[in-house]
Amino acid sequence: KMDTYDVNELFCNYYEKWITIYKEGAIRNSTMQKYKLTSRWLKKIAPNLKIREINRITYQEILNKYAENHERQSTMDFHHQLKAAILDAVDEGLISKDPTRKAIIKGKAPREKKVKYLNQFELQKLISDLDLKNEINFDWLIYLVAKTGLRFSEALAITPKDFDFPRQILNVDKTWNYKESGGFEPTKNKSSERKVQLDWQTVIQFSELIKEMEEDKPIFISKKIYNSTINDILKRHCNNVGISVISIHGLRHTHASILLYAGVSIASVAHRLGHASMSTTQKTYLHIIQELENTDIDKIMRALTSLNN
Questions:
Q1: Which of 37, 40, 75, 83 is nearest to 59 (CA)?
Q2: pLDDT > 90 in the chain, percent
Q3: Which residues, including other chains, have CB under 8 Å from residue 274's CB and lie 6 or more apart?
Q4: What pLDDT is stored for residue 290 in this prediction?
Q5: For residue 266, what are the contacts with CB-CB under 8 A and spacing of at least 6?
Q6: Is residue 116 pLDDT above 90, yes or no?
Q7: Cβ 192 vs Cβ 184: under 8 Å
Q8: What's the pLDDT tens digit per position in 46-72?
Q9: 188-to-74, 151, 152, 193 alpha-carbon distances in Å
Q10: DSSP code of 272?
Q11: N or C: at which end does the chain have fewer Cβ atoms within 10 angstroms?
């Protein structure tokens, strides 16, 4: 129980216990690792801060210290992870007023992250170089991600029963924990649970490939699998056909960008990718959206001109 706390306890110890009590087993392992990292940073930044000494100023100092060598987004995540525990301490009467209110998030400007993706012509070349045999291999994994935009962990977790061939649907409702010992895990968030519509060609190909396979075993997993293994295969194919090298995650971006260029709405792309909100999609594909806006101006003008009496 948490209410045996004393206001003279060190905040970093309180936080560590709080993670164990409230987060252990309730969140994905990868998210848990982020909480533990936050906990380690807290010990580094404020090793002697007692619960009773937490107020808006001392809290802001912690954030500022963290922001000195982190990007703004990272500082924002750090703040959210601390805030949850602090609000509990406020509820328990250990801290009198919410010290996280009106916190200012600073941080270094993000490095230029150019999202790497292929255009439709390059993707076509890549797919033509894939070795799509009569049984499942990693090239089929690459192909499936290109056609669906699944996250790597989602694609690894696909089992034969996730395919609904008559309705041309792929059910995405779990991920594969490839970073550790394997095994199924929940999706990144609630909105990541989705049904992805498949084209008939992919349906025909996969219905043949998996018909002998066990219903609920992942189709791509036979032994421990590494992200780098797939990226190396992908790199080889990219080099074979002379296009810029992208990662498996870059293939997800490629899928999204091709849909956006084809005029699919941001809302539909967000849903298909399993983004929690459209703002994620807008942030990630801002440059494409801006390019499309330029062509939209012509459409807007044509629409307005047609209104003349």
A1: 83
A2: 74
A3: 151, 154, 172, 187, 188, 191, 192, 193, 194
A4: 85
A5: 260, 278, 281, 282, 285, 289
A6: no
A7: no
A8: 999 999 999 999 999 999 999 999 999
A9: 18, 10, 12, 9
A10: H
A11: C
Distance from the first to the final alpha carbon of the chain = 74
pLDDT of residue 271: 96
| Per-residue confidence band for 5, with pLDDT thresholds at 50, 70 and 90 | low
Residue carrying the six token digits 């001109």: 305
| pLDDT of amino acid 82 | 96
CA diameter of the chain: 77
Residue 1 has pLDDT above 50, yes or no: no
Query: Of 11, 121, 111, 13, which Cα lies nearest the Cα of 55?
Result: 11
Exposed, middle or buried: residue 35 (CB in 10 Å: 0-12, 13-18, 19+)? buried
User: Is residue 59 within 8 Å of residue 86, measured between CB atoms?
Assistant: yes
Q: How far is CA 159 from CA 78, 175, 216, 232, in A?
A: 35, 11, 5, 24
In angstroms, the CA 102 to CA 86 distance is 14
Residue 192 CA from chain centroid, whole number:
9
Rounded to whole angstroms, the Cα distance separating 251 from 130 reads 14
Q: What one-letter code names the amino acid at 92? A: E
